[in-house]
Amino acid sequence: MNDHVTATRSIRRRLIVRLLASAAILAVILFLVVQSFGRQLGQESQDNILAASVTSVLDAVTVQDGALNVDIPYSAFSMLGNISDDRVFYRIEQNQAYLTGYEDLPFAEGLTTESQPAFATEQYLGEDIRLVTASRKLSLNNQPVVVRATIAQTRNGQKQTLRQISQTVLFLGIGFFAIAMVLTFYAAQSTIGPLRRLAASVSRRGPQDLRPVESPVPSEMVPLVRSLNQFIGRLKKSLSQSEEFIAEAAHRVRTPLATVRMQAEVTLRRVERDENREALREMIRAIDESSRAAGQLLDHAMVTFRTDHLVVESFDFQVLVDELVTRLRPIAELKEIDLGWQMGKPALIKGDAILIQNAVRKLIDNAIKYSPTESSIKLTLSQGRSGISLQLIDQGIGFPEKDFELLTDRFVRGSNAQDTIGSGLGLTIADDVANAHGGSLELKNNTEGVGACVTFYLPLR
Amino acid sequence: MRYLLVEDNVALAKSVLDRLSLDGHVVDHAATLETAQDYLRKTDYDLILLDIMLPDGDARSLLKSYRMAGGKTPIITITARSEVSDRVGVLDLGADDYITKPFDFSELEARCRAVIRRQGGMANNIKRFGNTQFDPLAGTLTVSGQKVQLRNRELRLLEIFINATDQLFSKSKLVDRLFSYEDDVAENAIEVYVRRLRKQLEGSDLNIVTVRGMGYRLSVS
Ligand SMILES: Nc1ncnc2c1ncn2[C@@H]1O[C@H](COP(=O)(O)OP(=O)(O)OP(=O)(O)O)[C@@H](O)[C@H]1O
Ligand SMILES: [Mg+2]
Known about the structure:
The complex is a heterodimer of chains A (461) and B (221). Chain A has 461 residues and is α+β, with helices and mostly antiparallel strands. Among the domains of chain A are: 13-163, Beta-Lactamase; 310-461, Heat Shock Protein 90 (2-Layer Sandwich). Chain A has eight helices and 14 strands. Chain A has helices at 11-59, 74-81, 156-203, 222-270, 274-308, 317-334, 353-369, 426-436; strands at residues 61-64, 67-70, 88-94, 97-101, 118-124, 127-140, 143-154, 313-316, 338-341, 348-351, 376-383, 387-393, 440-445, 452-459. A five-stranded antiparallel beta sheet of chain A has the order 4-3-7-6-5. In chain A, strands 9-11-12-14-13 form a five-stranded mixed beta sheet. Chain A has a two-stranded antiparallel sheet with strand order 1-2. In chain A, strand 3 (88-94) and strand 4 form a beta hairpin. In chain A, helix 5 (274-308) packs parallel to helix 8 and helix 6 (317-334) runs parallel beside helix 7. The longest helix of chain A has 49 residues, at 11-59. Chain B contains eight helices and 13 strands. In chain B, 38% of the residues lie in helices and 25% in strands. Chain B is an alpha/beta fold and 221 residues long. Chain B folds into two domains: 2-119, Rossmann fold; 125-220, Arc Repressor Mutant, subunit A (Orthogonal Bundle). The radius of gyration of chain B is 19 Å and the shape is elongated. The chains are: A alpha+beta (461), B alpha/beta (221). Chains A and B meet through helix 4, helix 5, helix 6 and helix 7 of A and helix 1, helix 5 and helix 7 of B.
């Protein structure tokens, strides 16, 4: 039997990996988008305040007595100050010349007017600052002057808000991922569920159960189940055809032989002349020989066929032997042979019961056939740790000394079997069955006294 | 004993019928399931021989319904199936044994005997000859109250004689009845069994008489 199936990664794992990867990517994107949106929003609100503040500063610039008067209103800085404890810097120039404020404060380049300020982010005194620059045209003594004001603010408050937002968004992302994970496992499980159930319902079946699968399946699985059912159907057909063929062949061959044999036997009872009687006896022997050969050939064909499709089930080996002994006892009694057999502990084993029964029958058949009348055959079943063996000891003619191993070959009969009819397939069948189950057939002669000792061994697996 | 033989092959049925009648049994023959059912309704049998494949159907249905209806008579099925597929089937359906075509008549006899014995048999089968009683089922012989157990071949030999007392049997005929055709036995092997049987019959009113150069016959004194 070949149980090997090449497995690629499981669908469930693949589904989980893919869904989780998408969830992770989505979570990261969510995090980045919300974060940058937050940053932008923070920046915009700071910029708006800065713009308002610079406008109010510029508005406060007046011309008084032919000179510029810059009286920075309190409100211009207070509106900045209420955000947080960020520091505020300013610088005011007149026609690009320093007028008041922090002289080295950088400014935003560009054409600016009062209503169109320019913004920039710079480093100042070792801190990140956001600055806004705007300018206003005035006329002083009929001369145009440009007043440019720059207001800067450190960004600590904004950064802190941003950190808070980021943190919240991070939790949000992690939460999203966690929920996605739970949903993923659930989805994977419920997707795989029908597959699992199908597999379980097929493998739970007994070896003889070749019914089509009828339980409802999701529509995606219908093609799979349909081809599975078709396959089961084909298997069933081919199995039953060969079994039926063999049974039919047996019927065809055996029925006419049975009729002829019976008639010959009845005629033999009526005939008085010795030559005629001898001829009839020869005839019966020939019929027996051919019908036996037909039987053995058919059994051999059946065994060869079945060893390819072992129908493995669990059964009690002991009960099997007991049934056979009961059945063969009348035959043994015809030769006054005593079949010694005792039931002991149950001997559970896994295998093809029909094949094993056939094999054991051949062995008992041999023991009876090659034993003299009024002898005994002993059958013992012993259970070891690794297997069960059935030993048959007879008091017959024993195996011939040479060509011992050849006896299990097809059509090989021993030199000791000249006087009995047979086709040389019995041991072949028993050996094939043992091998198909990973067991063995051992032939030897009894060391004490006469007769053969045959051991049929089957491993527990 | 009363047998019912259900077998559609006329030639085979006739041979079995002849053989069983020779042994002193009463046999009814049915060739179809329907006639078999008729017979079963009217008569009680000691044993039923049932061919599985019949022209009007599978006899396993008969087997099943007969057992379901409480029929107790032992049944031996006759099959032509390969031995491999025998295991499943008839025994589970309530047959007591089965025999595969073609069969040795002695095998059939042996199986019938075994099956009837397992059932317990009927008491009315015991035959009496003067001071001697013979129970063919149990295989016992009681001579003047003394019971002896016969061995298989002694039993069969005695049965042959008892079914036709005073008839002369040649050694070769006895060989044919007693041994299978497989083993090539010499005629004088019969002498061994005759001698043994005579020993068992010591003091009995039954006597095996040697007819010089012809064979043996059983006489009742
Ligand atoms: N119990 C035994 N005692 C002595 N010899 C045996 C025994 N079993 C088998 N043999 C020898 O092994 C040979 C092969 O046995 P095998 O059962 O294969 O064939 P067969 O009995 O001759 O024919 P058949 O196919 O009808 O059984 C026999 O011919 C016989 O010589
Ligand atoms: Mg053999």
